# Entry
Amino acid sequence: MKDVQLINIWFYYSKGDFILKGLELEVERGELVALLGASGCGKTTALKVIAGFITPQKGSVIIRGRDFTNVPPHKRNIGIVFQSYALFPHMNVRENILYGMRIRGVDKSEAEQRLDHIIEMLGIKGLEDRYPSQLSGGQQQRVALARAIAIQPDILLMDEPLSNVDPKFRSKIRFEIKKIQKQLGITTIYVTHDQDDALEIADRVAVMNNGIIEQIAEPFEIYERPKTAYVADFMGFENVFPIELIEESYVVVRGVKLRVSSLKNDGKYIAIRSTKLFISKEPSPNLENISGKILTKAFKGDRVRYLLNTSIGDLAVLTQNRDFNVGDNVYIHYNPEDMLILSG
Amino acid sequence: MRAIFYILSILCFTFLLTPITMPLLISFSTLESISFPPKGFTIKWFANIFRYETFTNGFIVSSSIAFISSLIALILSLPSSYILYRYKSLSIRGLVENLFTLPILMPEIVLSYLLLLFVYRALGIVSLISLIIGHTLVVIPFAMRIIYASLLNLGGDIEDAAVSLGRNRLGAFIDVVLPNIKHGFVGGFLTCFMVSFNAVSISLFLSFGEAIPLPVTMLNYLQIRYDPTIAALSTLLVAFTVLLCISVEKVVGLVSGVRG
Ligand SMILES: Nc1ncnc2c1ncn2[C@@H]1O[C@H](COP(=O)(O)OP(=O)(O)OP(=O)(O)O)[C@@H](O)[C@H]1O
Ligand SMILES: [Mg+2]
# Structure
């Protein structure tokens, strides 16, 4: 069952300058989808459309099968964890968490019961009487989550919930959010611009670029098989080149023929990870070779990162082989299976 | 290093406080005219203040004008600063912002003259109302700035948070925005009150007939007599201002306050 359906959403703040350009998204019940994209690509705007703070000029927002496009935000049952947490400064933790239930007329004893349960679950016992300014970033984050789930929302939206948390604790909190999300079975959209964050927490990752979702897939799938140059770049493919021509088992890049294992006729780019390229002094007889010259050499712990000037452009290579030096003329080779063909 | 810092602080405070302590010293002097150093000790100048009804009336007029114009300024500032804070992409945003801060850029004397021409001569509006209009204009930029700043400081998410929890816009505003800008209100009111109380040229240009603000009565008095009564009155005004500040500090904790 689909809890959220965004159908062809178009939205602008100032006329003609579209932020969302036909956004499509479907989220299954109980699923956690990470919305991943660079700053300014429209992630927060997409959340605001779902929450109802802004109304798209075109398109529909369907929640649990019902059209919510024109329903005001306070009549939608959506919990939000804001990037700034947005706790009410004049209310203590207890009052913050109880606020939504009070507004919705939840029975007093029922509300108290839920409060206790949530406080227990999020490990914020003992903080009930504190004001937000007396809490650490991580604690505020939990209270914000507690307040959002206390209303038992149909959908939970989280906007970069970890950006104000100390990097040391991110992994731990990420895991806790995931645990609670699964425990409650709550459909969640989680916005982030951090690739690790998205891959670690999500059931599916949606990579957003320029107002649309370029690809949505399970973490492993999107990491291994990005479909577009943008997604590949986001997933850490350092070497992406436009294709000039496609022939039977070759693609041509800057006049150089490169062998690939599978061919798509609509291929626009090739991409290969820096870890999938090898360097040697002599050309390899079994693998595909590109000749080049080493421009820079940098140590990355147990590996070395070389940047090479080659006939197809600059190539990055990450390898354990430290034997080469700047200025060396070398050959780079690769397995044709590792050379990905991207369609956009 | 530390010593230099202390000396500088002391110098700075001396510089700031001397003009305030001068009337204090002179106001107890037995000399018949304002002169330094003071001699002897008397409280007759203080008694003198209350013998002149124009002073007590002036105080009431000034306070009333300050009170009313500050209130009007705050009431006008709230919706407009709210709009500026809520709708960041508003196209007339710059215009509204400038409109409200324009009076601060105009020399008070020019503003006073324009108001004299416009409010009094053209519209024929009589003294007290023209004074209130003038004072409101003078204090509005202060009210606007302070309320707008406290709204910006609060951030917009908190209202959205209340809305997402089920409250409608107006309710959210009342529940979570208003309580958190009350410091701004009190601070804004206080600032406006003092600015208005001290707006001498506006008062000078626009007061006719019965309703004469305190600064004008003080100037008038000085033109006739040059005794320390005005020094005594100044001392009282300083005390009044300090008291006002302290009470506000006590009520809302303008500076500290655990609740942020
Ligand atoms: N209230 C607004 N008025 C006008 N333009 C806005 C407004 N809010 C956002 N924008 C613009 O819309 C675009 C998308 O903004 P949005 O906040 O959705 O980005 P984002 O993907 O959430 O970025 P970030 O990762 O920085 O939070 C940006 O170019 C931004 O400048
Ligand atoms: Mg954002």
